[in-house]
Amino acid sequence: MSPWWTPDRHADRAPLLRARAKALAAIRAWFDRQGFLEADVGTLVASPGAETHLHAFRAGAGFLHTSPEFAMKKLLAAGERNIFYLGKVYRAGEKGPLHAPEFTMLEWYRAEAPYTAIQADSVAIVREVCAALGASGLRWRAHACDPFTPPEQRRVKDFISEPLSADEFSERIVVIERELGHPSLTILSEYPIAEAALARPAPHDPSVAERFELYACGVELANGFGELTDAAEQRKRLAHAMQRKRVVYGDAWPIDEDFLQALEHMPEASGCALGVDRLVLLAAGGAHIDQVLWTPPQ
After folding, report:
1. Facing residues of 111 across strands?
2. Who contacts 241 (Cβ-Cβ below 8 Å, separation ≥6)?
3. What residues contact 209, with CB distance under 8 A and at least 6 apart?
4. Regarding beta strands 138-140 and 82-90, do their DSSP bridges make them parallel or antiparallel, or are they unpaired?
5. Taking a C-beta distance cutoff of 8 angstroms, is the pair 271, 223 a contact?
6. Among residues 233, 214, 49, which one has the least CA distance to residue 145?
7. Which CATH architecture is the domain 7-292 placed in?
8. How many CA atoms lie within 13 A of 188 on its CB side?
9. Angle at CA 174, nearest 5°, toward 89 and 47?
10. pLDDT by residue (tens digit) across 202-229?
11. Can you give the residue ranges of every domain in the chain?
12. Average pLDDT of span 255-280
């Protein structure tokens, strides 16, 4: 395949890149109407995240962030209330039709708001982008999704009722995902507490977490939490995640002590991350994430 910068290949991608520009403008306009402030956080960090199975790029003595989550929560501790980030994040080893090692993430937080509020936000943002692009729906391969109809609400226990190991759970979820997000959006909620390292327990059932994922056409678009603010519990979960990482991958990164200190001052909040490239891809009718990246990886 010719390089992305050749005129013929760029001409093929140009309509999707223009759709991307419209989508980013629509997202920023939506948050402005909601009274949010855009936070432009740094991407070079001492500790890049909390996920066992994510891999970060090392940069000198630090890492490129896999998510702006720790920085955003520190800003909540500093006194900010409704904030969003729209920018690059980095994950090593991720490449394919729906994955890129450098991609654009939208992440936002509402202080003192239930996580049902950010569920509603995520649906509203998908609809806003579709409207900006003149798209009546989302499409990925054989599946179509109408985001303007009411979303389907499902719980993990609707599909998985027996206890599973972390690896077994990950394998099962991959199969379940294909069933979600068509013909309407699906909100899948109440993940096992062990699968939500940064989320607080649900008040009605401490074995499950206030975690949800938003799906369209069998594709995960967003992942949101009612945020855990118990610093002692968060330390235990981060330590456990890094212990698993050492066992599985022979690697780990340091716990962000500054983040744990900030949690002691952070208000109750809910937050969500949404993959902007994926959303544009599905709304614009593309077939590979490279089509919506201005400078795709080579």
Report:
1. 269
2. 50, 51, 52, 197
3. 190, 191, 192, 193, 195, 196, 199, 200, 201, 202, 225, 226
4. unpaired
5. no
6. 214
7. 2-Layer Sandwich (3.30)
8. 25
9. 30
10. 999 999 999 999 999 999 999 999 999 9
11. 7-292
12. 97
